[in-house]
Amino acid sequence: MKRRKVGNLLALAVLSALVQRPMHPYEMASVLRARDKDQDMKIKWGSLYTVVRNMDKHGLIEAVESARQGGRPERTVYRVTDAGREELADWTRELLSTPEREPSSFEAGLSVMAGLGPDEVVRLLRQRVDRLRERLAADRERLARERAELPRLFVVESEYALAVGEAEATWTQELVDELTTGRFPDLEQWRAYHRTGDLSPELADLAERGGD
User: Fold this and answer.
1) Angle between helical axes of 82-97 and 9-18 (0-180°, round to 10)
2) Which residues have C-beta within 8 Å of that of residue 189, sequence separation ≥ 6?
3) Does residue 88 contact residue 80 with C-beta atoms inside 8 Å?
């Protein structure tokens, strides 16, 4: 991925809002929340003003006016610059065209699950599948509402998230099935390790070599 002047994805979200009209940061946050942008990307709302200042510093946006209403703090209205429009287009092209390896917390858990016994792993994975299915049901309902109200162009990210969630639920259930039916390779060696505390020579060698 290209190194960007302001690499926080919140900057991308801000640019996507400002191409429509100038806004002050409070408005930006309101619009992005209304669009559920924090569902599409990791957003730390507390960093919004820092991100906006950095975008202004690097010429992606510029202040057009500052106003104060009553006793409220002064609000600076920003608009996107030509450089900001170019950055938005270039960043979007990169995100759509270039796969990026983004390990998840689930992958981290899977990578160390040998530290737990197979039976506990099965119990935990079943909990995960149940929770995934609950979330997927809610996501399907939300997507149905969005499709009834919005053009598909504005809901494709929800379709993608649903497809990824369904794939994860299916894969996790298949892993549970392998563990419960005994089809998972080296399952008995795994069980023996948790009974005795000793790894078999084969698994000990693999653990030392990291599977190389």
Assistant:
1) 120
2) 199, 200, 202, 203
3) yes
Which residues fall within 8 angstroms of residue 110, CB to CB, at 6 or more apart?
none
Residues 6+ apart with CB under 8 A from 161: 39, 40, 139
Dihedral angle computed from the Cα positions of residues 51, 57, 62 and 68, in that order, rounded to the nearest 10 degrees: 70
Structure tokens at 127: 């909990």
CA torsion through residues 140, 146, 147, 151, sign: negative
Quote the CA–CA distance of 202 and 134 in Å, as a whole number.
40
Specify whether the CB–CB gap between 205 and 189 falls below 8 A: no
Give the three-class secondary structure for 160. helix
In the chain, the amino acid numbered 176 is: V
Query: What pTM did the predictor assign?
Result: 0.81
Instruction: Write out pLDDT tens, residues 61-109.
Output: 999 988 766 556 678 999 999 999 999 999 999 999 999 888 889 999 9
Strands (E), 34-165: 61-67, 75-80
Asked if 100 contacts 1 with a C-beta cutoff of 8 angstroms, the reply is yes
Q: Are 18 and 62 in contact (CB under 8 A)?
A: no
Q: Which residues pair with 76 in a beta bridge?
A: 66
What local confidence, expressed as pLDDT, does residue 100 receive?
87
